[in-house]
Structures are given as structure tokens and as C-alpha cells.
Design a protein that fits this description.
Strand order of the largest sheet: 10-12-9-13-11-14-15
Order of helices and strands: HHEEEHHEHEEEEEHHEHEHEHEEEH
CATH architecture of the largest domain: Alpha-Beta Complex
CATH topology of the largest domain: Phosphoribosyl-aminoimidazole Synthetase, Chain A, domain 2
Shape: globular
Number of helices: 11
CATH class of the largest domain: Alpha Beta
Number of domains: 2
Length: about 350
């Protein structure tokens, strides 16, 4: 598992984009509260003591190619999750519909079904499209681009001092996997793991249960606003293993996540099931406050198991070898500069 994780982090999809965003002003007159690399950018509202805006843009083209309807839903849901993960109330979205030649029936079918999926998700999540644009006929030598209906979103943080960050805050905290299925998550089809490690691109994308997305996201936002969550990260590309690695890299603090029950570790750690968040909390897993949290989640139909703890300088997943956080960062940072240098 360790070798697979390092390979994925060092690939074109999951590698750090720091080389790109360092070319531009990311401080925005000193108002930036979260720099690129997290779930969403956060910027103070000039002239307001506490308000801030969160921004994100998301789409997973391989999902849209496999099933444009579910892919359209997922693009909206992931953007909504990324805003929610900071503690923001998602307000509105814009779409950027990038497709090949719509005169081809299969491309027009992608466009139509993606729009239907986007519409269904926006209505279910209360996340209206207020603007957008369309870019069609994107192809080279008759080969169209993957369907890429990008969703950009904005959310409001009433009090930015209570926002959540991706990086672990400190060692010795419990990590919860909020929103995971009772079987821990098993959807490997269309995952980066299957593509990068096994060269397979078959099967459907993970389904998106929009009602569940809304319940889980609202619950996570409440944990942030109540000061219970010290770090939050949505689980998306690469699954649980990559999300844990990203939290460790963002903070320099490692984590230990043992094998989860008797489940097969590969789909658990690399499956890309939706509506899931990693949440670090400063609660005793055996204490009354944690029991109260679990009871509240259970009443909402949300599974939020304790999966591990923060601490140390390594990431240890199941029975796989521990990976130093420094090695995770090295793999993550290497691809883009190498690509730009022609290596």
C-alpha cells in the first residue's frame, strides 16, 4: 500500500500544484486566510471584522466520461463539500461546461446528461448556478477532450476565526471518518488507484447520494462551528489514503490508522466513495463528549467511526510500512517541476 500511495501522490493528478500557484499573488492584499493546496481558498471580506469567503472549483472528468449524469452530480457535490469542509455555508455556483464537438451524438449526450446531473445536485444541495459559460468543439485530430463540466463555488464564513484547515492541528487527537458507508467504502471503479496502479479504467463512477451529502456536510459544518473539529478534509481523488496523506503533509504531523475491522484494506484505503470527511477532534474516544457526538451522528443516519490518531512524523496505514511525512512531501512535490523542466 505504501508504494502505491507514493506513486499516486507523485502522479499528474494528485501532485502538488505549488509550482503553478507560486507564479501568482496568492495573498490578495494580505487578506488570504488559506493558501492554495487545501480544500478551498479563504479570503477575508475587506471592511468586515469576521466575515470571509471560501472558494473552490471541482470536476472529475473520468467520472463524467464513465457516466455524465453521476459525474455532473459529483462535480457539484465535491465543490459543495470543499466549501463545507472549511466551515462555510455554500452560497452559489458557476459552471464552465467544457466538451468536445456537440455535433457528435455521443458528445451531445454527455453534455445533456451532465447538465441534468448538475441541476439535480444544485437543487438538492441548495447551491444555485448563478452564472457560467460553455466551451465546445475542444478536440485535436478528431479526438475530443474528456467531458469536463467544472463547477466553481463560493461560500460564506460568518466568523473566519472558527474555520477549519486541512492540516492536523496537533498530535494525540482522534480521527473520525464522517459519512462513510457501513462497509467502510469499497468503490474502486474509476478510481485513481485502479488507473495508476492497475491501468484499468472500466466500471461506473461512485454513485452520489445527494440527501446523504447534505446531511453529512451540515453535520461536519456544525462540528467546525462548535469548535469540536480541529482539522477537516473531504475524501475524494485517491480515497482515504490520499486524504490522510494530504492532512499529514499540510501539517508535518503524522497519523496511525490501523486496519479497519476485517475489511479488505485496498478498497477501504483507496476506494472513492462520496460524502465522506476526515475530521480530527480533540475528544477522548472513550469519553462522554465523543459518545454524544456519535449519538448525534447516529440520529442523523451518519456513520462516523474513530479510525486512528494523529501524531509522530510518519503515516502508518493498516499493516503497510510507515511512510515518513517528508517522503510523502518529496513524492508530492516532484512531478510538476519535473514536467515543466521536460524531465
Amino acid at each position: 500500500m505504501a508504494d502505491a500511495l507514493l506513486k499516486m501522490l507523485g502522479g499528474p493528478d494528485l501532485s502538488s500544484r505549488r509550482w503553478v500557484w507560486e507564479q501568482y499573488d496568492t495573498l490578495i492584499q494580505g487578506n488570504s486566510l488559506q493558501l492554495p493546496g487545501g480544500d478551498a481558498g479563504v479570503v477575508r471580506v475587506d471592511g468586515h471584522a469576521t466575515k470571509a469567503l471560501a472558494f473552490s472549483s471541482d470536476v472529475t472528468p473520468r467520472y463524467c466520461e464513465a457516466d455524465p449524469f453521476e459525474g455532473g452530480k459529483q462535480a457539484v457535490a465535491e465543490c459543495w463539500r470543499n466549501l463545507t469542509a472549511t466551515g462555510a455555508d455554500p452560497l452559489a455556483a458557476t459552471d464552465n461546461l467544457n466538451f468536445g464537438n456537440p455535433e457528435r451524438p455521443e458528445i451531445m449526450g454527455q453534455l445533456v446528461m451532465a447538465i441534468k446531473g448538475i441541476g439535480e445536485a444544485c437543487r438538492a444541495l441548495g447551491f444555485p448556478i448563478v452564472s457560467g459559460n460553455v466551451s465546445l468543439y475542444n478536440e485535436t485530430n478528431g479526438q475530443g477532450i474528456l467531458p469536463t463540466p467544472t463547477i466553481g463555488g463560493v461560500g460564506l464564513l460568518p466568523d473566519w476565526s472558527k474555520m477549519a484547515r486541512v492540516g492536523f492541528a496537533r498530535g494525540g487527537e482522534a480521527i473520525l471518518l464522517v459519512g462513510c458507508p457501513a462497509d467502510w467504502g469499497t468503490h474502486l471503479a474509476q478510481s485513481i488507484y485502479m488507473r495508476d496502479i492497475h491501468d484499468r479504467t472500466d466500471g461506473p463512477p461512485p454513485p452520489v447520494d445527494l440527501a446523504h451529502e447534505k446531511r453529512v456536510g451540515d453535520f461536519v459544518r456544525k462540528l467546525v462551528r462548535d469548535g469540536v473539529a480541529t482539522a477537516v478534509h473531504d475524501v475524494s481523488d485517491g480515497g482515504l489514503a490520499v486524504a490522510l496523506a494530504e492532512m499529514a503533509m499540510a501539517s508535518g504531523i503524522g497519523a496511525t490508522v490501523p486496519g479497519l475491522v476485517d475489511a479488505d484494506p485496498i478498497p477501504v484505503f483507496f476506494g472513492e466513495d462520496q460524502a465522506r470527511y476526515l475530521v480530527a477532534v480533540k475528544l477522548d474516544p472513550q469519553g462522554e463528549d465523543m459518545v454524544a457526538l456519535w449519538n448525534e451522528a447516529k440520529a442523523l443516519g451518519i456513520h462516523a467511526p474513530w479510525i486512528g490518531s494523529t501524531g509522530g512524523s510518519e503515516l502508518k496505514l493498516g499493516n503497510s510500512r510507515a511512510i515518513p511525512v517528508a517522503d510523502l512531501k518529496s513524492a508530492h512535490e516532484a512531478w510538476f517541476p519535473g514536467f515543466m523542466d521536460g524531465k
